[in-house]
Amino acid sequence: xxxxxxxxxxxxxxxxxxxxxxxxxxxxxxxxxxxxxxxxxxxxxxxxxxxxxxxxxxxxxxxxxxxxxxxxxxxxxxxxxxxxxxxxxxxxxxxxxxxxxxxxxxxxxxxxxxxxxxxxxxxxxxxxxxxxxxxxxxxxxxxxxxxxxxxxxxxxxxxxxxxxxxxxxxxxxxxxxxxxxxxxxxxxxxxxxxxxxxxxxxxxxxxxxxxxxxxxxxxxxxxxxxxxxxxxxxxxxxxxxxxxxxxxxxxxxxxxxxxxxxxxxxxxxxxxxxxxxxxxx
Length: 281
Prior knowledge:
This protein has helices spanning 15-28, 45-48, 63-68, 74-77, 96-102, 111-116, 136-145, 156-177, 199-210, 225-231, 236-241, 254-280; strands at 2-6, 33-37, 79-80, 85-87, 125-129, 147-153, 186-193. By secondary structure, it is α/β, with parallel strands linked by helices. The chain has one domain (2-280): P-loop containing nucleotide triphosphate hydrolases (Rossmann fold, 3-Layer(aba) Sandwich), CATH 3.40.50.300. The longest helix is centred in the C-terminal third of the chain and has 27 residues, at 254-280. The relative contact order is 0.17.
């Protein structure tokens, strides 16, 4: 089982679109996948996947209950979808930080990790999609996964964002190692996203590579069909197969892009896992 957080400090870079389509690609390859939407904002993965009503439901258990109530588990709140299972976000996640302070809950950064432990054996992959803003939710996601994939636009803002995320991950790793010396946070890679092939895109790519920031060998093009799929509440695979939608010839590479992303993530996480085992031995 491998757990991965998809995160960027900047909004609008395709973080949630990446999480959904990566989950769909893994599901299409018959991996057992759980997606945890950990973002209370209105436009989150729960909405993209078509379960908007679950974010406001007040008569059902939510992800917050699974975090704070020992009698409620992730299995009580997850949704079984065709390609993956989903733990939907809920608007009450926005007040989680104030709740744990008011109730004086210790080790609040480990709530998600504890909640996921009972179901880890059921899945090959767990993907976590937290908000872009650095807060308790992001800390929980990174600690629960130990791995992070960083989608960035090939712009100057994206370049600074990639550097900032890596610095944040390294700082959090150092902080946690004071209590758990063996703890590591692994940057699986930086994903060039929304790439148009412009001169600026190429310059930023070169600049990142010269900064020793490891880019994944996958590039997601800037196609508006991804926004159309979002509006239709479908991943790109089901959008392509849908009778009312479909892809134009120049867009037909998109599903293969996300399959290539899945392959790259699998390879890098397996390599990292093997490296950790060797270092422990």
